[in-house]
Amino acid sequence: MSASDPGVPLGGAREEAAADAEPTVSVPLGAPAGPAAAAQPLAIPGLPLDRPELHIGAAFVGGLVLARVLKRLAG
Known about the structure:
Elements: H1 12-21, H2 52-74
């Protein structure tokens, strides 16, 4: 389309594309807005929250234990 067309404002195609890109969702009244937020952050009991390296280490060890269990079940 040309800019001389009186029915098309300058930059109209971009604005229409942006309007089409934004999804519109209708939520019935009284419906929950989404998943409920956790009251506390996910943490391993007994490990302090200010030491994230302990949580990463615990997750790594847990992965190793799971891998050994699965390997034993498969073989």
